[in-house]
């Protein structure tokens, strides 16, 4: 290792970097970004030396570990996301070759994932790929005018996972999607964690009441919440249609938090259907403390999505004592038992409206299920990354014996 990269090793006793490859990183905020951030933070805390490899972004943040960026351009249809173009970056290839990686973990099969495969071929380091998203749905939206591109890119995604030494999924039900895509190898379930897990140390209900006061929520309102990308694939239209049915019948307050291509149309629906006095579209809230208050102040987290695999937002809501309303048969609902740690409904506005209306008059049931969600769905990132490190060490030992 040359002196050029000696600054990457704050823990000299641990040789080689723990490479984390992903196509999104702050200021982009989504579940996979949070996963990579927490992997980096807790790996560093444990004495390992992480290095995140991700597309360049004009906004710079300081991290306790190294972030290696490569050339990118904005994705017009998915702002603020960017797509990396390593072939147009004359420096990234040499930087990767000259950096000693102990293990590689790619959280995305696209540009950063291909760079991870490149490092594996050049250095022989073991490679893990985590299957986080339903990539085909993303591609079908992005290439709706050129649908012939979708099977070509899906083949590349399959090639990426076939190049990995291990493929991880965040919950068992995701296996159905992975197999549908054509991957036939073994799969390992490694759950995601939750950085809200330790916020509430005292009485849950006192904390939630305090959050409602901080945000100005009224006691007689049922407070509803959605956090995530504002894209139609996540079922956000169903939420607004359900609220339209509840207007004048239930005293509700709805908050949308996030951004996405459907945000403008969503705002228009809220205005057109006369919901502006009950529905607020907040945009992105970057402060985790401020976001945790919205979770805590809410009674129900609405998530009518077949699109998501293992959404972190459901576990974040659970950590703040807010149960989720999910779709029957969705991958996201695998961890939920209806009426015990969440609620399951059919994918219709009527079903959502009936569920919300019924729970608005049954606070005791909401409290009971909220406690169930908090007891069963909350696991800290420190705990998760402890398991991850054990799995890394095992793979490294197996790899070194070859």
What does this structure look like?
It is a single chain. With 402 residues, this protein is α/β, with parallel strands linked by helices. The chain folds into 2 domains: 212 residues, Glycogen Phosphorylase B (Rossmann fold); 173 residues, Glycogen Phosphorylase B (Rossmann fold). 40% of the residues lie in helices and 16% in strands. The chain is built from 14 helices and 15 strands. The strands form 3 sheets. A 7-stranded parallel beta sheet has the order 3-2-1-6-7-8-9, with helices on both faces. Strands 12-11-10-13-14-15 form a 6-stranded parallel beta sheet, with helices on both faces. The chain has a two-stranded antiparallel sheet with strand order 4-5. It is globular, with a radius of gyration of 22 Å. The N terminus is likely disordered.
Which terms summarize this structure?
2 domains; 15 strands; Rossmann fold; 7-stranded parallel sheet; 14 helices; alpha/beta; 402 residues; disordered N terminus
